[in-house]
Amino acid sequence: MANKPSIPKGTRDFGPEEMAKRNYIFDTIKRVYALYGFQQIETPAMETLQTLMGKYGEEGDKLLFKILNSGDYLKSVSDDELKERNTLKMQTKLCEKGLRYDLTVPFARYVVMHREELQLPFKRYQIQPVWRADRPQKGRYREFYQCDADVVGSDSLLNEVELMQIIDTIFTEFGIRVQIKINNRKILTGIAEVIGEKDKIVDITVAIDKLDKIGLDNVNEELRGNGISDEAIEKLQPIIKLEGTNEEKLDVIAEVLKESETGLKGVEETRFILDTLKNSGLKNEIQLDLTLARGLNYYTGAIFEVKALDVQIGSITGGGRYDNLTGIFGMPGISGVGISFGADRIYDVLNTLDLYPKESVQGTQLLFINFGEKETAYCLPIVAAARKAGIRTEIFPDKAKMKKQMSYANAKNIGFVALAGETEMQEGKITLKNMSTGEQELVSPEEMINRI
């Protein structure tokens, strides 16, 4: 007996009902992005490793899926190197490409390559899958979709304000209650300066970013392991555990960072965003969270993260400002800010809370029963008219028993069934059956379309 086929861990198949739900997510996000003037692009699934490596920090580099060179991929590897089994050294010779880890770095590469064609500021959105060689677990997949919106070529903080409004609008439409968390990497840089560990900003932010996952004691231990002094760690504690309103937190942190020009700039930017959003009618809470670090190295200003309030799952949206990203590709000075919706986690949240509108998952609305060639010939123009009117319509392809055709309609949750035999054809009508109520009525094709 042949082995049953399987798919890689951390990936999923999606059937018709699941795809209907996913398309509801994608369509909602696309519609809101378009309302704010964003335009869609796509980039290849694979990028050169030169594009990808070194953009996500050491931990991110480890999670990149590398693609073996085609043909004789061992031709540039010596026997001695094979015996040495140095994986990191070998992969540079075996692999020139990798699957994209996110959509932001490919977007930066796109901007550099297409600079002459772009009108700045350039507002783009992109909805495509990304891949990470992570350990699969609940809410974490190796293949998943991101739904990004980015603005490049503008330093204005109004872009951050609009992205917060987009987040609020989309989750309000989904009916998901969320908390929007905001911080600023300049504040974190200022903290590193005032505790005397300016060169350790990446280590500090990566460790702080794990607070929710591993707890305060383990964060402190990781900081210690990265060579940060006990005195500096002690100074960090009140900052990590800061409480109060957004205004109170900003007032306290401004006092703590009064000797740091960079830190105060971060406070000023954050205050502007929060003050501007006060009168924008947000439906969801926005909270300043100084433990929010987002481990990716390229963020330089505001950073965002969204958590669902009614489902225990990781971040479902994140993003931030990344002033220096295109400089890596030889184009310094282009500022960018963006957000990314995690469609797969949103899908899981909507499933858990059963928040899909009924019409979003409804498939075929009308099925014509097949009684034979003559009846089918009569029905086909009516089928065409129903489709032209926007009704999702099928005609059963085979002259099968009525029971089989009705079972098909029930299995697919089709709302209406149309029957046309000798009587209906003589009168130029259709018998329309409502599958929910069981009621039947003899109607003209025009009346049938109006009923549905």
Automatic annotation (TrEMBL):
Keywords: Aminoacyl-tRNA synthetase, ATP-binding, Cytoplasm, Ligase, Nucleotide-binding, Protein biosynthesis
Pfam families from the UniProt entry: HGTP_anticodon, tRNA-synt_His
Domain Aminoacyl-transfer RNA synthetases class-II family profile, residue spans: 1-397
Top-level taxonomic group: Bacteria
Catalytic activity: tRNA(His) + L-histidine + ATP = L-histidyl-tRNA(His) + AMP + diphosphate + H(+)
Similarity annotation: Belongs to the class-II aminoacyl-tRNA synthetase family.
Name of the protein: Histidine--tRNA ligase
Lineage: Bacteria, Pseudomonadati, Bacteroidota, Bacteroidia, Bacteroidales
Gene for this chain: hisS
